[in-house]
Amino acid sequence: MSTADDEKAAADEVEAREAKEAKKRKKDKYRRDKPWDTDEVDHWKTVTISKEENPQGLLEESSFATLFPQYREQYLKQVWPDVKKVLSEFEIKAELNLVEGSMTVKTSRSTWDPYMIVKARDMIKLLARSVPLQQAQMILDDDKYCDIVKIGGLLGSKERFVKRRQRLVGPNGSTLKAIELLTQCFVLVQGQTVSIIGTVKGIKQVRRIIEDCFKNIHPIYHIKELMIRRELEKDPELKDENWERFLPHFKKRNIQRKKMKLKKKKNKDVFPPQQTLRKEDIQMETGEYFLDEQEKDAKKRYERREQQKTKSAEKRRERAKEYDPNIAAASHAKKRPREKEEAGESAKEMASRLVDKASASSKQSKKKSKVAGNLLL
Prior knowledge:
This protein is mostly helical.
């Protein structure tokens, strides 16, 4: 009986293992189970190291340095004593070099938390990016992280970059404030970077909003989605359900814009254009530059004589055309077309035309005499 139970238990175990293998994702096909990695282990739990856990401290010294812009020099000089005080709680040294414009953080032999130097490095980076000390020191908490998003290279046009950065901030910083409230993060837009301080989940959400904003997707769409997700998180019944049916789906609008006229670029030559020749260079090419005054005068007289000869030859040809019968007839026909018409009409037509002309002139004379008589009366 006991052997039958053992066989049944072994069969059940094999079936359970096969069912578990079937549920595995494709990428987990060859991944073996680790005996220490059970479902009870919380991988996202923040690990804290106290001074009692590491009383000996660190064996080696680690240091990080970062540069800061000149406009931050005055502020850093004021708050540096407070920075030292904050870092001294974790036995970390801080140095400010105003000549090089750099900040340095170092561990000491009494530093117990090895990860705290990385947190201190992030803190001086945030201070360099214009984050106030009050917010920058939040990074030293174990559950807080930071991210500095570079937005300078996301767009080619400077005007478009300024407009979309302003869109991220919103009127009087209202959009940025809404993002901070929904993600529980501190966000600061400064120049060509955006500094984020918060949890891992919040930083991911803010980074997605920033990148989409520079891809011409307005932050308000993400804000609406985050507000709905916030309400859904409160309901325990919807914890394991898919929320896609509750989230808004915005359609892409194809807005017709004015087509930009493409200007054809002129082909620029690799080599510069050839220089125009001077008067002296032309004279050298023709050989005139090496002649004396008498030879130059003789050459000018010869050229003048040649010009006169060509002009006189042209005039002679023009005069000869008048005696050519064909050319003369054509020019005569062009000059007097009315005579040609009169020559073509018959004697009867000519007589009727003259009679009409005489009657028209007599009528005009009668009218003139009548007008003159009226004036006398």
